[in-house]
Amino acid sequence: MKRLSGGIDVGSESHHILILDEEDNFLYNQKVAHKLNEFAESIKLFKQIEKQEGGKLSFALEGKNGYSAPLDRILLDKGFTLYNVDNFKLKRFREAFAGEWRDDERDSLMLSKMLKLKEHIDSEREKVFIKIEKPSLVTESLKLLSRHQQTLIDEKVRLVNRLRKKLLEVCPQILELGKVKNKKIIAILAKYPDFSKYRRI
């Protein structure tokens, strides 16, 4: 069975995906928008490519991060093999092709070429490719909750900063009681929510 090598340059709004056959012929070279319907269409094409070429398609991603979801999960669900490539290793590989510009298409091409050479690049001492495993439902839930928790923490920090700024404008003395998160200050604010009256204090 032929080995088909795909490279995915991950972006926040779109991902550049490129697929090479064993002779370095381009089988697919497209920018795919970060939309579920576009992912579905692309995966149909990937399955067709596998069938036409009689091959097995694997993908290498540049630095798996939050932006790769849900594309990475969908590809795993559809039976494709995915590898994460360290950004530093990709940079070193890219430098071997000096004189060429850097853009999303070139990065996805470099990832495809690296994947073709996986057996020669990987060693016992230094693993360049980390296989991305399909996470369990518990792991996925924990990741979602963790991201939600961080969002709430960030929102709390923003609100506290805004409240502190407002108190400095209308009644800076109140901050002598302590930080804005201080229970005494919160109790006063809850009892007297009308900031216009604070100027009289």
UniProtKB/TrEMBL annotation:
Pfam families in the cross-refs: DEDD_Tnp_IS110
Transposase IS110-like N-terminal domain sequence ranges: 7-172
One of the GO BP terms on file: DNA transposition
GO MF entry, a single one: transposase activity
Protein's recorded name: Transposase IS110-like N-terminal domain-containing protein
Organism per entry: marine sediment metagenome
